[in-house]
Amino acid sequence: MATLEIKDLYVEIEGKKILKGVDLTINTNEIHAIMGPNGTGKSTLAQAIMGHPKYVVTSGTITLDGEDVLEMAVDERARAGIFLGMQYPSEITGVTNADFLRSAINAKREEGDEISLMKFIRELDSKMEFLEMDEDMATRYLNEGFSGGEKKRNEILQLTMLKPKFAVLDEIDSGLDIDALKVVSKGINDMRGEEFGCLIITHYQRLLDYITPDKVHVMMQGKVVKSGGAELAHKLEEQGYDWIKEELGIEDETVELEV
Question: How many other CB atoms are there within 10 angstroms of residue 218's CB atom?
């Protein structure tokens, strides 16, 4: 079992305090979901885990099996087994989807142990069929001209091909119709197991109708204020967040910048 542990994490963006003491522990064979109002730091947490330079960690720790993640460069975090499914995936002209994926897979392997072309093609074809993706997606430039749904499916394709220890999926369900949502959920569920852990950031309980989380966390004012099982997401869908604010005595505040 592997463990991704976040302790007392504080993060700033351009001098603005966003995260204010986040504590979270995720093990492989677990799927966690984070919910919360806009501007509470959910996407900031995802970017801080992956090492975006705009997100400055002022105190606290992030460790992967005891190793200091904050001391790792972004590519080192990826090679260590952390994957970020982005809310707004970037377009890269001139690099095909297949070339990007094969390069990413080989970057995690030792020199001389690169994946063979035939094995790569077989696996890619299998995963694309499983995710109901058109064959030409492999030869198109990465995310260029992709619809929102195609970009999100492509993030899940990358996830299933790269097989990280931990995935952080930032609003992977945003903008998806019900059919695309089912396919994306199928891809995530297929990854479940003893060698994979996942943190899903979402606004909506509907995704969790298809992916049953082991734990649900609520973020407010830059920290996790409540945790529970899957039933917590259903209660949030029915009652919103006011009951948590009342229960914990949390006062509304001006929404801070979350890039």
Answer: 22
Q: Where are the alpha helices (DSSP H) in the chain?
A: 42-50, 74-80, 97-107, 117-130, 148-162, 178-191, 230-239, 242-248
**Number of helices and strands in the chain (H, E):** 8, 12
* Residue-range definition of the domain harbouring residue 223: 3-90+163-248
Q: How far apart are the first and last CA of the chain?
A: 33
Q: Is residue 188 in a domain? A: yes
Tokens 């229960």 sit at which residue?
A: 247
Residue found under tokens 């890039």 = 259
| pLDDT per residue as tens digits for the range 123-179 | 999 999 999 999 999 999 999 999 988 999 999 999 999 999 999 999 998 888 899
C-alpha distance from residue 223 to each of 3, 117, 140 (Å): 20, 45, 40
Q: CATH number, domain at 210?
A: 3.40.50.300
pLDDT tens-digit profile of 13-40?
999 999 999 999 999 999 999 999 888 8
- Give domain status of residue 175, yes or no: yes
pLDDT at 78 over 70: yes
Q: Are 131 and 160 in contact (CB under 8 A)?
A: yes
Number of domains in the chain: 1
The verdict on residue 43 lying in a domain is yes
